[in-house]
Each structure stands twice: as structure tokens, then as C-alpha cells.
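Figure caption, in words: inputs first, then the predicted bound structure.
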Amino acid sequence: MADARFLYEDHELTFPVVEGTESDAAVDISALRGKTGLVTLDRGFANTAEGQSAITYINGEEGILRYRGYPIEQLAEKSSFLEVAYLLQYGELPTKAELDEYEESITRHTLLREDVKHLFEAFPHTAHPMQILASATSALATYYPDALDPMDRESVDLGSRRLIAKTPTMVAWSYKYRVHQPYVYPDNNLDYASNFLRMMFSVPAEEYLADRVIAQALNMLLILHADHGQNCSSSAVRLVGSGHANLFSSIAAGIHALSGPLHGGANQAVLEMLHQIVKSGDDLDTVIKRAKDKEDPFRLMGFGHRVYKNFDPRARIIKKAAEEVLTSLGVDDPLLDLAMQLEEVALSDDYFVERKLYPNVDFYSGIIYRAMGFPTDMFTVLFALGRLPGWIAQWRELLGDPAAKIFRPRQLYSGADTRDYVAIDDR
Ligand code: CMC
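Bound structure (carboxymethyl coenzyme *A present):
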């Protein structure tokens, strides 16, 4: 591909264009500052690729999402979450023997050290589950000093498996503490989703069998959330990892980044918004009017995406699943009807059409989580559970890349000019 040519003052500058495997291409401006003294200004990195990644392909114009080349629709229908976790980590779908070995090693690491319970018990019962999960993930590092060297491939692999194995236990145990119920230990005979559901919802006094429909839907939702390129939390994970912080610390940073309502926290915010609409008695035209009003901080949560400008393929799958799961469970949730009406009204409004704002992954997922029995403030934790293999894969990709550098963006200083210190009595 031809070099890119830019004119600056009276010089013509050329920069190489790097091609991706699909139709993507990027201008490599690494030499820009050296040649001109200029840096680039790109709010929110909307046009900036920090590096190259071979994990996830997204085409926002056409609504395409693929993990390692495999379309999300096929993985959601046919795969299991642990198979997808393997695919993201190692780049290929596992053979039967490889998958057996991977699943076996994940199930062997599901237990937490007994003293980790004290950590959950140190939090107030009202603590947000994302805050607890980030803290517990960070704390895990202190139990596994053998897995902290980011340059030791074997210990990184072990640390990755431990994280994927122990996160459902951490999430379920923090919930059990909060609802004053006994901790339920993992059952390694169960698949990943069923084991998690059992740790969440069973009590030792009764037999518990995870509902097939719920377990399958959870498996699918985890797959749909498993990776999404250089989003806010994955970039946070890579950024922290770029300074060679250990895997656990980097993942804890990702969990914090995910918690915000513009990112993963949107699934909780959608449900709260739907409840608020019902409570206020506002009609949908009023709601849409508020979402469009720049003076009003209200936004239609679960709508819009930095990359998708046509539709979010995950939202399409989740919407269909929401209808199927609720029907199959015999749940008649008025919030699902409200969400569908809201989508219809928004999609026929010029404001949303012109700005290409469509429902995203978070718009319908909460309705399914609610039908499964999860409290609203746990929705983002479920997103984190799904995104974990993606974060780990992103971190490992960066740390294994000989061309990787510490992330250190430039800035355009816009503060005060130099001035002399003034003694406190003279100010
Ligand atoms: N409701 C009303 N207006 C919106 C919305 C919305 N949900 N989203 C974007 N807009 C408007 C925005 O005001 C702006 O209008 P204008 O051009 O007149 O200034 C225009 O659309 C472009 O929006 P932006 O904020 O510049 O776009 P962005 O790419 O920086 O932000 C976003 C993307 C997802 C943060 C944003 O669409 C948003 O806040 N959505 C609601 C929160 C949400 O659902 N987040 C989940 C994202 S998907 C999963 C994930 O990443 O975790």
C-alpha cells in the first residue's frame, strides 16, 4: 500500500501505511514527533491504534464481530465458554484432548484459600460487587507469588487458569456473604456455568440442579462478552500490563475500568433506567426527548457504541435470547416489553438514526440476568466474568510482543506559563 503523504508548513512528510489482515489499514506515525516536533491529538483514542492485535476483529460499519476469525454467531450457538476462553488464549480451537486438559485444569483450581473468606467479610453488606471483585482479584496475587513474573510464560499460564477458575467462586462467595448464606463450594463435575449458578443460588440444606435453559443462556452470554478488542477495560488491562505489573493487578484495573456506566456498568444502568421510567410514569416520547436534550444529563443507557454504527451483533443475539429464555422460564417481564418499545421509538427518531445509535450488548442482557435471579448490581460482575479470558488474552498478547512498549501517551500542555513561587502570606 502507498505511503501516506501529509503537508506540514512547507514540507511533505511521508509515513508508512500498515495493513491489517482484513481491509483495515493504519498510518504509522511513530516518526511524526521526531520529524516535526508535533504530537497527535485524538480525544478518546477514537482514531488511534496503539498496536496490532490478532485476537478480535470488529467491523463496526457492517456489524461484524469475530474471535480469532470465528464469527460470534457461530461461537454463541455452538461453543462453550471454556472452549472460547481457550481459543482467545491460545489462538486456535482446541482438539478434544486439549479441551479436556484445559477444562480439567480449570476445575482443579476453582477453590479459594479458606482465609480469603475473611476478605469478603471485611466489606459492608452493601458493598458493590464490582468493588469487591476488583479487590479480591488484586488480593489473589498475594496468595500466588509463584505466578507474578510477567515474563515467565509458564507461571503466566498458571495464573491465567487460576483466575478463570477462581473468579466465579469469588463472585458467588461475595454474594453469599452479602445475603447471609453459607458459602457453597465448587462442584468440579459441573460445567462452568452450572457450577457458578450452583455456588450462587444453592443452599446446603437442599438439592440443587441448575436449570438447563439458564445454564445454556449464561454460557452464551459469557461467550458474547468474552472479548471486544481495545475497549476501555481491555485497554486499561494492557496499559497496566505495559508497565510489567503482574496479571492479577492488571486484571483488577480492568474490572475497575469496566464498572463505569459508559462501559460495562451500562447493563445495571439500563435496568435502573427501565425501572425509573415505570416509576415516573413518563411516556416514551418524553423519555426520548430527555435523551436528546443536551441540557439534560440523561442518556438512553444501552444505546450507542464507539465502534458499531449499524448494529451490535451481540445485541441482536441477546434480544432473541431474552425472548426465548423468558418464554421458556414462563417469565412475563413487563420490562422486556418496555425495552422493545423503547428500542422501536428510538430507532424511528431522526436523532438516533442520524447519529447511528443502536442498542448495544447491554440493552437486553440485564433482562435475562434478572429472569435468572441475579440482583441488578451484579450484572456488571457477570460482564466481567465473561470478559476475563479476553482481558487475559489481551494482556498476554502485549507482554509476548517483542515490539511492545510501555504505554505513555503525550499531552498538549494547556496550563499556566512559568511563574515564580509566592510566599503564602503574599497570596
Ligand atoms: N443517548 C443519547 N444520546 C447519545 C447516546 C445515548 N445513549 N449515545 C451517544 N449519544 C449522542 C451524543 O450525545 C453525541 O451527540 P452529538 O453528536 O450531538 O454531540 C453523539 O451521539 C455521539 O456520541 P458520543 O458520546 O460522542 O459517542 P462515543 O463513541 O464517545 O460514546 C458511548 C459511546 C457508548 C459511551 C455512548 O454511546 C453512550 O454513552 N451510551 C450509553 C452508555 C452505554 O450504553 N454504554 C455501553 C457501551 S457498549 C458495551 C461496553 O462498551 O461496555
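Residues 153-178 form the longest helix (26 residues).
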